[in-house]
Specification:
The protein is mainly beta. 8% of the residues lie in helices and 66% in strands. It has a six-stranded mixed sheet with strand order 2-1-6-5-4-3, covered by helices on one side. The two termini are 24 Å apart. 0% of the residues are buried.
Length: 106
C-alpha cells in the first residue's frame, strides 16, 4: 500500500471486509473504487510491533501496530493504528479476509 501499487488487490480474498478506525466498513468493491480514485494515498506505512500471532489450520490471526501517513482528499494525515487481521490460505496462497483498525490516541 505504501507504494500505492494496485498489486495490493491480489492480497485480498473476494469477500474481504475492512473495518476502519472511524467506524467505516468497506468491502472489496468499495476498496477498489477508493483506491483507483486516489482518494487516499500513502507516504509511509511503518510496522511498529506484532503483539500476537495465532494459527488455526489454514487461518492466521495477526495483531499489530503501525504508523501511517499520507493524503486523504489532499489533506495530510498521520496516525498510529492497532490492527487485527485475519488471513486465510487457499491453494497455497495467503489472502486477507478481514481487517479491523483502531486509532491509538497519544
Amino acid at each position: 500500500m505504501q507504494n500505492n501499487d494496485s498489486k495490493i488487490l491480489d492480497l485480498f480474498e473476494s469477500n474481504v471486509s475492512f473495518g476502519h478506525s472511524n467506524g467505516w466498513i468497506q468491502n472489496l468493491d468499495d476498496f477498489k473504487k477508493d483506491y483507483s480514485s486516489k482518494k487516499v494515498s500513502y507516504k509511509e506505512i511503518k510496522q511498529l510491533e506484532i503483539s500476537e500471532l495465532k494459527q488455526f489450520k489454514n487461518t492466521f490471526s495477526v495483531r499489530r501496530k503501525i504508523k501511517v501517513s499520507g493524503l486523504y482528499k489532499d489533506q495530510d494525515f498521520e496516525m498510529k493504528l492497532a490492527l487485527l487481521e485475519i488471513w486465510i490460505k487457499k491453494k497455497s496462497i495467503w489472502k486477507l479476509w478481514s481487517r479491523q483498525s483502531v486509532e491509538i490516541k497519544p
